[in-house]
Amino acid sequence: MHLLRRNHQFEFRSLSGEDLFGAADLYSDAGANRAVLVLRGVPASEASRALATLNHSWLPYLLRADTTLLVLTLRPRADGEKARAVVLPLSA
Fold first, then answer.
1. Are residues 50 and 19 in contact, defined by beta-carbon separation less than 8 angstroms?
2. How far is the C-alpha of 32 from the C-alpha of 20, rounded, in Å?
3. CA 35-63-6 angle, 5° bins
4. Could you read off the pLDDT of 2-60 as tens digits, one per residue?
5. Total-model pTM
6. 3-state helix, strand, coil in the chain (%, to 5)
7. Residue 51: which of 73, 27, 78, 32 has the closest Cα?
8. DSSP state of 77
9. Rounded distance, CA 81 to CA 42, Å?
10. DSSP character for 45?
C-alpha cells in the first residue's frame, strides 16, 4: 500500500444537522484494486455520513469504481491510551 492523499480536510453534516469537520488519509495498492480510507476526527457514530460525503465529493476522482475499499475510523486518544481503529461496514 502506498499513500495517495494525506490529511484531506473535509466538512460533513451530522445526523442532527450540525456541520462537523474531519480528516482523511487514503492508501491504495499498486494495481488500485484495493484501498484503505482512514478517517480521523470523525465520531464513529457519524462515520457513515462522513463516508457518504466523501463518496460524492472526493473518492470518485481518486479511485476506480471497481476498487475494494476498507474504511477505518480512528477514535481520539485518551491520556495514556493507544489510538484504536474501528472497521466500518460499507453501505454507501
1. no
2. 30
3. 65
4. 899 999 999 999 889 999 999 999 999 888 899 999 999 888 889 899 999 999 999 99
5. 0.80
6. 20, 45, 35
7. 73
8. P
9. 18
10. G
